[in-house]
Amino acid sequence: MLLRVIRDHQEGVLIDQGMGRSAYLCPTEACFEEARRRKRLQKSLRCQVSDDLMTALQERLTEPRVAAAEAR
After folding, report:
1. What is the pTM of this model?
2. Dihedral (C-alpha) 54, 55, 61, 65: value to the nearest 10 degrees?
3. How far apart, in whole angstroms, are the C-alpha atoms of residue 72 and residue 35?
4. Residue 25, SS3 per DSSP
5. 19-66 pLDDT, tens per residue?
6. For the chain, which domains are there?
7. How far apart are CA 31 and CA 6, in angstroms?
8. Cα-flanking dihedrals φ and ψ of residue 55, to 5°?
């Protein structure tokens, strides 16, 4: 499952909601770190991506692992 990041013309950059220019990020820590380091979301969306949004994306990456660990 890929994470979708959208640049909405009214509300800015959003995760998984709205319509507009989109970028997709694979849900692995290595992919996220490379995208952060090389500013791939900024380049794809053609705008600045806030640190708060990057933190939210990183938290979303760790959520499934926590839920899977609790299920065991």
Report:
1. 0.77
2. 170
3. 31
4. strand
5. 999 999 998 999 999 999 999 999 999 999 999 999 999 998 887 554
6. 3-71 (3.30.1230.10)
7. 18
8. -65, -40
